[in-house]
Structure formats: C-alpha cells, structure tokens
C-alpha cells in the first residue's frame, strides 16, 4: 500500500534527520512508530519495521510507556 510506505519512509526520515530522536531511541526513552488510521472503523494499526517486535503496542505497554495512538 502506498500510504503505508509513505509512513515507513517518514519514520525513517525522522530518525535520520534528528540526532535527538535517534539518541532517545537508542537510550530506550523514546520509540518512533508509524501508524495507519482506518477512517471506516476508527482503528489505528501501528506499523513495525523491527522483525523481533511483532506487536509494538504491547511491548510499549509492558514497559509502562504511554501509547498515544
């Protein structure tokens, strides 16, 4: 899907362009995730490019991190 690819490229771009974001992610203090919003159902699907993280929402919740989607 073209929209998903756009989200994935945007996340990659954010990570590449922002030293602060990259440092916070490396330290485990921030996680940048892309998401797709389904206008018909109102559901938000978090996109994940990491093979060892099948469910990014549950991983964040287990760490006590706020999930803003």
Please give the domain count: 1
- In one word, what is the shape? flat
Structural class: alpha+beta
Cα(first) to Cα(last) distance is 20 Å
CA radius of gyration is 13 Å
User: What kind of sheet is the major sheet?
Assistant: 2 strands, antiparallel
- Strand share of the residues? 5-15%
Query: Helix amount, in percent?
Result: 40-55%
Q: Strands across the major sheet, in which order?
A: 1-2
Which spans have pLDDT < 50 for at least 5 consecutive residues? none
Order of helices and strands: HHEEH
Question: Tally of extended strands?
Answer: 2
**Average pLDDT figure:** 81
Number of helices: 3
Please tell me about this protein's structure.
With 69 residues, this protein is α+β, with helices and mostly antiparallel strands. It has one domain. The chain has helices spanning 2-17, 19-27, 56-62; strands at 34-37, 44-47. A two-stranded antiparallel ribbon has the order 1-2. It is flat.
Summarize the structure.
Helix content is 46%, strand content 12%. The protein has 69 residues and is α+β, with helices and mostly antiparallel strands. The protein has one domain (2-62).
Helices and strands in order, then pairings?
Blueprint (H helix, E strand, L loop, with lengths): L1 H16 L1 H9 L6 E4 L6 E4 L8 H7 L7
Antiparallel strand pairs: 1-2
């Amino acid at each position: 899907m073209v929209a998903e690819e756009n989200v994935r490229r945007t996340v990659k771009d954010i990570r590449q362009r922002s030293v602060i974001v990259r440092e916070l992610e490396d330290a485990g203090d921030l996680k940048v995730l892309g998401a797709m919003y389904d206008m018909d159902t109102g559901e938000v699907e978090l996109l994940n490019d990491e093979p060892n993280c099948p469910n990014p929402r549950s991983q964040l919740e287990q760490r006590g991190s706020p999930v803003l989607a």
